[in-house]
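Board notes (copied after class):
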Amino acid sequence: MQRGEIGRYEETIAGGEQVRAFVPAPLPPVPPLDPDGTLQQALESAVLALGRLDGIAPLLPDQAALFLYAYVRKEAVLSSQIEGTQSSLSDLLLFESEEAPGVPLDDVVEVSNYVAALEHGLRRLREGFPLSNRLIREIHGILLSRGRGSTKTPGEFRRSQNWIGGSRPGNAAFVPPPHTAVADCMAALERFLHATDDGLPVLIRAGLAHVQFETIHPFLDGNGRVGRLLITLLLCHASVLREPLLYLSLYFKQHRTAYYDLLNDVRRTGDWESWIAFFIDGVRTTAEGAVSTSHRLSQLFAADRTAIERRFGRRAGSALRVYGALTEQPMLSLPSASTRTGLAFRTTASAMELLVDQGIAREITGKRRGRLFVHDRYLAILNEGAEAP
């Protein structure tokens, strides 16, 4: 539906020149969304896919290893890549293992900050803290706590004009609201997040909220990453997902041009329905992909364990324990493996050598001390789509 522009323009001075800054109207859209039969059917398919994804969590042998560790990190890499970092999942795991990544340190620090910000937000929600502007600011503060962006007022809404695209506000592709309007815009968004009287399904609410946040652009830096985090936090807060298993950054990365075009089209024409159709397809595609990945990982782990038992017989016990540590963290040092398994260091080292002999683990440093081992096939599955640009 073509509603026309979904807000108003304010004349303001930025960078010494007069610009027109866009102030979005509060949500929900007016007139209301008009989901036709196709959109309604797509919404039902996405909800079913989310249900299947949520349903696999209790069935996984170690959901923390499969998702809360690995998926959070993959999402951090992908979301940061959209903003231009060169870091890969392997770079992040190397950094967390105190090894030098293969990209500039600022890139991997940015990704590491994202992991910490996401984990903080999820922890606060589990503790009963509301999904609110205060929590959004807390997340932003952690996201920009180190490295690039640390001078861009972490944890605070901006107090100056920003812009998207172009070298200055006057030639920007889009100019968000003046800083004087940010507090009111974000207060209205917070009310929308908690509204219960508009009849909107949670998925549609998440899709609308994402666009609104990106349009307000309330921070000097990090808006894209926080806006993508907001989707997952909203779904967890609404108990659509018990665990944070859904991340749309891969979908947005693969359809980057359509993503940005649709954000701009909503602002210019008010065609929320086209954006929602795209967003819902992303939810369905991503949920189905996550379910498929979980099954592939479960099959890989089962096959590896069977191979270890058949090959090593009575020696399989310690090898299986070390293998279990590798499924929790696919890049692992011997001291870390010893700590995780409770085995003596020498026993851990011997067990890891058995895994290397079996072709399950591989040593990647070439050192005699401080060796680091990786489960290549596990990491390859996780890394799909998250390769460095």
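Comment from the instructor: The chain has 15 helices and five strands. Residues 97 and 332 are 7 Å apart (CA to CA).
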